[in-house]
């Protein structure tokens, strides 16, 4: 007989034991694929973000070159590629004659560096090579020809696509 009265296969192996061994094998494969990243790729989407760098001179901004790769100055994570630069006269709030006035320091500019990247969506975050980007976040970035410290002031992405990735 194939299965005896005690539920053993060929009188030697218990069917319940076989079931548990199969569940264990499936669980081990599942853990392996989950931890090794073979279980599928994370969703990514294109983003464009802007970093404001304040009170620098024109010579500094001449070294911000479109097309250069940008990395995080601390972690060396890839943060995207410079897509553009816009400068305008710097503005600072300063006290003068018992008042607070908006002044423009001579020769100083504020720069808005536009960076394009493909971000991983880890809802509700956008992540670039392990670094989360958020409006208001202070960043220290490096390109091939300049080091930058500023704040993220704008992030553009397809909000409908982002919501679908929840």
Description of the molecule:
By secondary structure, the protein is of the alpha+beta class. It is rod-shaped, with a radius of gyration of 28 Å. The chain has helices spanning 15-36, 58-61, 159-164; strands spanning 8-9, 13-14, 44-56, 69-72, 78-89, 92-96, 99-103, 109-122, 125-128, 131-133, 138-142, 147-156. It folds into two domains: 1-40; 44-164. It contains three helices and twelve strands; from the N terminus they run ββαβαβββββββββα. A six-stranded antiparallel barrel has the order 3-8-5-4-11-12. The model has no long low-confidence stretch (mean pLDDT 88).
Brief descriptors of the model:
single chain; 2 domains; alpha+beta; 166 residues; two-stranded antiparallel sheet
Helix count from the secondary structure assignment: 3
The proportion of residues forming helix, as a percent range, comes to: 10-25%
Could you list the spans in which at least 5 consecutive residues all have pLDDT below 50?
none
Summarize model confidence as the mean pLDDT: 88
Shape: rod-shaped
Give the N-to-C terminal Cα separation. Answer: 54 Å
Determine the strand fraction and express it as a percent band: over 45%
Strand count, sense and closure of the main sheet?
6 strands, antiparallel, barrel
How many structural domains can be distinguished in the coordinates?
A: 2
Structural classification:
alpha+beta
Q: From N to C, what is the helix and strand string?
A: EEHEHEEEEEEEEEH
Radius of gyration: 28 Å
Q: What is the topology, as strand order, of the major beta sheet?
A: 3-8-5-4-11-12
Number of strands: 12
